[in-house]
Amino acid sequence: xxxxxxxxxxxxxLGVGMLSIAAxxxxxxxxxxxxxxxxAIGGCTGWAGGWVGVWLFGHLFAPVTALWIAxxxxxxxxxxxxxxxxxxxxxxxxxxxxx
Length: 99
Known about the structure:
membrane; elongated; transmembrane helix; mainly alpha; GlsB/YeaQ/YmgE family stress response membrane protein; single chain; 99 residues; transmembrane
């Protein structure tokens, strides 16, 4: 029963990841395999959201919680990653003098 539930939550997350790819929510800076990153983020957030739903609300509401956490995760996590990358690249290029 747990394996089926976990698989369902992962599939919900993968579905949300596929929808986010179709909506082109991946950042412009992701040049190599942006679809894989969005699928991984969607699957992981769906899986984690399902477990959070079990712990907080029980098995009945876990799929709905997985859906909402996957939606929020696929919207905000790629943007947070892009901001962190942008700020770390700016720090490296301004701190070092090569000439």
